[in-house]
Design a protein that fits this description.
This protein is mostly helical and 69 residues long. It has one domain. The protein has three helices and no strands.
């Protein structure tokens, strides 16, 4: 089944209420920024062998992809 993502902004004091309502709808999967980060941290590899220079190069290439240097 194909799904689509949407972004919803809500006032912080009403977030819990909205999540409660959306949680009752069976065809909605709720992914908060916090839950995405938690999933990433849990599944991220641990001892990655990469230097700071290599990381800087990768970040620079991704950030400025398609732009002339």
């Amino acid at each position: 089944m194909k799904t689509e993502e949407i972004l919803i902004e809500v006032e912080p004091q009403r977030k819990k209420e909205l999540l409660n309502i959306l949680g009752k709808i069976d065809f909605i999967k709720i992914l908060t920024k916090e839950s995405l980060l938690d999933d990433f941290i849990i599944t991220a590899p641990e001892n990655v062998q990469i230097t700071e220079e290599e990381l800087d190069t990768i970040v620079f290439e991704e950030r400025y992809a398609g732009r002339k240097k």
